[in-house]
């Protein structure tokens, strides 16, 4: 397995170096390990990366190679590249592991950190891997088939790479064709080709190296960073926080996982799919809260106290030694060297356990302590073989019979001490693990109970809010909107607890693990459904409240404006004189004012229709009987005031008509009516053509009719008769008979009488003109 990973890294790192050499105009390398041994090609690489000219030794001896590599290491140190445990001899000797480590540190510095330094500074973050994972998850969150939680297994099927490219460049290919029609290898080949020919990224990986159970993390990181370099680089704080909430992988390699699986029970990832809560539609406002699915990390412990995850080491018997396959001769010096190394590590492990400190009361801190201790336990497991080897060496050394009695006693005491300290450390670490399990489960169960109680309380709260009718006036509605905002704020606060439960650490017994996990999954599903329902109800009600508030405000605004307009016109009509005119001009001024009012009424008639429409729209959404009654009362009041204004306008016109004989005997009723009509028509024309900016019509000229004395006498008689007829007509209108006509809605007789009077008027004065 280690050889496979080494081969992948060798191939990937070689491609990366050659991609850099192509940029610098340098010759490519063929073998990563042998071509870097003399240090020259390493200096060529650093020249291109640093932009500095680096002199090289021209000789071909080992000394020249060591000098070249040392120069390269000095350059790396000046650029703050990590070089722990890497020396010039390691590179010159062609040490595969350390050569790969050196190149990875170069890639990490110039390819990863250097590319991401600006965004890391802006976000005040120092972990480049976390930023990169946050960017990937933020970019692919709209792809349900993709869930990237690491830089290994999440990339095997090829969907993540395609989704990452498609999220930023959807114009390059059709996503559905990638999902439905291709295998993992084909999808990876597709992504690499798109990246190369459309984005200019070299094909650093081969599909078969990624389409495996456990791809190489460093190779994936290097390639994803190349994509990050050419694609938009937005990363939100929310995306970083989401990554921080992901379950942390245990600090153990895949090889160690397989080697130690028979000794230790490992963590299992159990994903429970739950209702996701409200999903915002394009027309709805941005939700201020969100719901999560719950992911449980179930750490299975054994129910048999004799089977511990960390087996103890005991001193082997001579029979055990005889059965051992060790054929190398053991010396006292080699035993002492091995013993000192193990004791040094054991002392460090004891200090590390002690430094973990007391278990916290905060659930998030306990989770952190749990994951830290899990890594610590993995470290103990990986080193327990070294303890056993030292004990075996000591037993074998004693069995040779070459030691003096004092030496043998000393070795025996050393072995007993080592075994005792190891056993104490093992027991203490197991006890710490057990205590962490208990405290963490207690805190998480408390969280579940608190969430359940909060959901019950909030469900009752929403039921009460649902039953309360909206309104009955706009101030009450505003109060209900504020009340709903408080509920939203409570949801945001509770979201913290929901986030904490997003990744639970569940400890179950091996004997009843399946049943306990199934029960917990069902409990979490119920809680998740209830949480999602509250989120949806809160969002839907918020949209409804905002819609009603907007409609109510529009209705109220139109209502106030129309009421003010009615008051203004009522006051204007009350100020118009209808009797006691001093001369003809005063009377005509009143007629003109009446005509203007008549025009305003005609134009404003649409406002009444608009108010009725707004009222119906609001009531259809509000569904409140009390509010409907209040608004109908308002509209009835407006209609009554409107009718009163129209009737008073007509009455004022009639009063002016009655005042004609007293003001100007020569001005007939027909003159008054024509004047009103003429003024009204003029006002309508002015209104109709105001936007066309036509010049005002010239003032009307007075036309005088020259008549002899005989005609004048006849005119006076006719005016007197006409005035008498008008008086009689008014008397008829005020009579009980007219009341009956009005009640029955039959005005045919009355219209006939009025038409006869007007016919007589026009018959006697067909050519009468006025101003």
UniProtKB/TrEMBL annotation:
Q: Where is this region: Disordered?
A: 302-321
Does this UniProt record's set of keywords contain Ligase?
Answer: no
* Species annotation: Panthera tigris altaica (Siberian tiger)
| Protein known as | Calponin-homology (CH) domain-containing protein
Q: Which domain of life is it from?
A: Eukaryota
Q: Which Pfam families match?
A: CH (PF00307), Spectrin (PF00435)
| Positions of the Calponin-homology (CH) domain | 7-111, 126-232
Which ranges are annotated Polar residues under compositional bias?
302-315
Under CDD domains, the record lists: CH_DMD_rpt1, CH_DMD_rpt2, SPEC
Gene Ontology molecular function, alphabetical: actin binding
PANTHER family named among the record's database cross-references:
SPECTRIN/FILAMIN RELATED CYTOSKELETAL PROTEIN
Record key words, sorted: Actin-binding, Coiled coil, Repeat
Q: Coiled-coil segments, which residues?
A: 448-497
């Amino acid at each position: 397995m280690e050889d496979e990973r080494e081969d992948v890294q060798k191939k990937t790192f070689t491609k990366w170096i050659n991609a850099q050499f192509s940029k610098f105009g340098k010759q490519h390398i063929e073998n990563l390990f042998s071509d870097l041994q003399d240090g020259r090609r390493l200096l060529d690489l650093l020249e291109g990366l640093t932009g500095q000219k680096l002199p090289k030794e021209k000789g071909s001896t080992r000394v020249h190679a060591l000098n070249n590599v040392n120069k390269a290491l000095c350059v790396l140190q000046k650029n703050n590249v990590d070089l722990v445990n890497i020396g010039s001899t390691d590179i010159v000797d062609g040490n595969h592991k350390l050569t790969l480590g050196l190149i990875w540190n170069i890639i990490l510095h110039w390819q990863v950190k250097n590319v991401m330094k600006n965004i890391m500074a802006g976000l005040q973050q120092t972990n480049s891997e976390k930023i990169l994972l946050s960017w990937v998850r933020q970019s692919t969150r709209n792809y349900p088939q993709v869930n990237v939680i690491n830089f290994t297994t999440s990339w095997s099927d090829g969907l993540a790479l395609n989704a990452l490219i498609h999220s930023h460049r959807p114009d390059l290919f059709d996503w559905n064709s990638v999902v439905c029609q291709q295998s993992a290898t084909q999808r990876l080949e597709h992504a690499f080709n798109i990246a190369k020919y459309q984005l200019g990224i070299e094909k650093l990986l081969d599909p078969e190296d990624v389409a495996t159970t456990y791809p190489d993390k460093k190779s994936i990181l290097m390639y994803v960073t190349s994509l990050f370099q050419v694609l938009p680089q937005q990363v939100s704080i929310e995306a970083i926080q989401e990554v921080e909430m992901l379950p942390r992988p245990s600090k153990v390699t895949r090889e160690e996982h397989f080697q130690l699986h028979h000794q230790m029970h490992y963590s299992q990832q159990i994903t429970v799919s739950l209702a996701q809560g409200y999903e915002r539609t394009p027309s709805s406002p941005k939700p201020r809260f969100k719901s999560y699915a719950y992911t449980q990390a179930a750490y299975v412990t054994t129910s048999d106290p004799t089977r511990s995850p960390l087996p103890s080491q005991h001193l082997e018997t001579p029979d055990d030694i005889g059965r051992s396959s060790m054929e190398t001769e053991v010396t006292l010096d080699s035993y002492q060297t091995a013993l000192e190394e193990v004791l040094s590590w054991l002392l460090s492990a004891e200090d590390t356990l002690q430094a973990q400190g007391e278990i916290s009361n905060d659930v998030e801190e306990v989770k952190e302590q749990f994951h830290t201790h899990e890594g610590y336990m993995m470290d103990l497991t990986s080193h327990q073989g070294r303890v056993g080897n030292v004990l075996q060496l000591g037993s074998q050394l004693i069995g040779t019979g070459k030691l003096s009695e004092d030496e043998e006693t000393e070795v025996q005491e050393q072995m007993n001490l080592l075994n005792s300290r190891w056993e104490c450390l093992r027991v203490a670490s197991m006890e710490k693990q057990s205590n962490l399990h208990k405290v963490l489960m207690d805190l998480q169960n408390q969280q579940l109970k608190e969430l359940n109680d909060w959901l019950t309380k909030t469900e009752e709260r929403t039921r009460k809010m649902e039953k309360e009718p909206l309104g009955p006036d706009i101030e009450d509605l505003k109060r209900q909107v504020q009340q709903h905002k408080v509920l939203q704020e409570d949801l945001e606060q509770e979201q913290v607890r929901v986030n904490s439960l997003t990744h639970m650490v569940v400890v179950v017994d091996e004997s009843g693990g399946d049943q306990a996990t199934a029960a917990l999954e069902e409990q979490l599903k119920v809680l998740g459904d209830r949480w999602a329902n509250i989120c949806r109800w809160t969002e839907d009600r918020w949209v409804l409240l905002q819609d009603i508030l907007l409609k109510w405000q529009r209705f109220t605004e139109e209502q106030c404006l129309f009421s003010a307009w009615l008051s203004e016109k009522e006051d204007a009509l009350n100020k118009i004189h209808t009797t006691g005119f001093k001369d003809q001009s005063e009377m005509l001024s009143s007629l003109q004012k009446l005509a203007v009012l008549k025009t305003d009424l005609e134009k404003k008639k649409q406002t009444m229709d608009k108010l009725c429409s707004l009222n119906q729209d609001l009531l259809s959404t509000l569904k409140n009987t009390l509010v409907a009654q209040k608004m109908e009362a308002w509209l009835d009041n407006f209609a009554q005031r409107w009718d009163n204004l129209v009737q008073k306008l007509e009455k004022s016109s009639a009063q002016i008509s009655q005042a004609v004989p007293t003001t100007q005997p020569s001005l007939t009723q027909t003159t008054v009516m024509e004047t009103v009509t003429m003024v009204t028509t003029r006002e309508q024309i002015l209104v109709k053509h105001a936007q066309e900016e036509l010049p005002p019509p010239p003032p009307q000229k007075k036309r005088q009719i020259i008549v002899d004395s005989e005609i004048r006498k006849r005119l006076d008689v006719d005016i007197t008769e006409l005035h008498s007829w008008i008086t009689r007509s008014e008397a008829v209108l005020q009579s009980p008979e007219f009341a009956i006509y009005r009640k029955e809605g039959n005005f045919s007789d009355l219209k006939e009488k009025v038409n006869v009077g007007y016919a007589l008027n026009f018959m006697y004065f067909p050519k009468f003109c006025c101003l």
